[in-house]
Design a protein that fits this description.
By secondary structure, the chain is mostly helical. It is built from 12 helices and 7 strands. The chain has 2 domains: 161 residues, Cytochrome Bc1 Complex, Chain D, domain 2 (Orthogonal Bundle); 87 residues, Cytochrome c-like domain (Cytochrome Bc1 Complex, Chain D, domain 2).
Length: 266
């Protein structure tokens, strides 16, 4: 087990240590809109400065790789993203702020990384990127960065409603040997200083994200898996529909907050 997982487990265990654990409610209260805050607000001045300055933000290296991939022809179709979409600065602006979206052909929602792989398979006739691969994170970060500063605006699509409800149920569900839900940490105990760390509200405003503990980029699915491992639950496989459902709910929960990609976190 790596150091990051151990630290996460210790952090969560301290939240529920002793008789307090038994007193925790099964369902936490939602955070009022006027109290929502990005994890950025709780970072140190040095970490904030790292995110704010593109010449210091380590996530920008992935963005530059993604920009190169955007213009690279691939697959038997010998086409690039730019061949279809042109300049990403205009064609991709606002895209990350509204994903996941409903995909009629699949009959279910898809997130941004899945949309990228659909394009690779169908339009470039290229092999899909592997989950959490350098290329997937880079191209996702480049596309998402075009929405930086835009408000999160999930689509008003009734086809998404049952999937959002599943994501909400997962957020509220106790799991793992620690018998904790996402809500108990991120709704009920946000802002508390625990084991030297401030519990965040868990808004998906900056993914793919550069985490200092990872020393690299990672997707929201990686972060969700880390949380599940932290409460000693069996994580879903990368690409599982549960992660997309959770992202749908989290994006609804963060509606109106601004995209920060590529964000930096401790």
């Amino acid at each position: 087990m790596n150091v990051a997982v151990l630290r996460s487990m210790l952090w969560i265990a301290l939240v529920v240590a002793g008789p307090f654990a038994a007193a925790l409610p099964a369902l936490g209260a939602e955070i009022p809109p006027d109290q929502r805050r990005s994890g950025y607000a709780d970072m140190s001045p040095d970490n904030k400065a790292m995110q704010d300055d593109d010449t210091s933000n380590p996530g920008m290296l992935a963005v530059l790789d993604g920009e190169a991939l955007w213009g690279t022809k691939a697959g038997t179709a010998n086409r690039s993203c730019a061949d279809c979409h042109g300049d990403a600065k205009t064609s991709m602006k606002g895209v990350a702020a509204r994903y996941p979206v409903f995909n009629a052909a699949r009959g279910q929602p898809v997130d941004l990384s899945q949309r990228i792989n659909i394009c690779r398979s169908q339009h470039q006739q290229a092999k899909p990127f592997a989950h959490e691969s350098k290329d997937m994170l880079a191209l996702s970060a480049y596309v998402a960065m075009q929405s930086r500063g835009d408000p999160i605006a999930p689509p008003d699509d009734q086809r998404l409603k049952p999937f959002i409800e599943k994501g909400h149920a997962l957020f509220m569900q106790r799991m793992g040997q620690l018998n904790l839900s996402c809500s108990q940490c991120h709704n009920d105990n946000w802002g508390k200083n625990i084991a030297g760390n401030i519990m965040p509200q868990a808004h998906p405003t900056g993914y793919p994200i550069y985490r200092l503990e990872w020393q690299g980029m990672g997707s929201l699915q990686r972060r969700l898996r880390n949380c599940m491992i932290g409460v000693r639950a069996e994580p879903y496989a990368y690409g599982a529909p549960e992660y997309v459902e959770m992202e749908l709910y989290l994006m609804q929960r963060a509606r109106g907050m601004t995209i920060e990609t590529p964000a930096v976190r401790p």
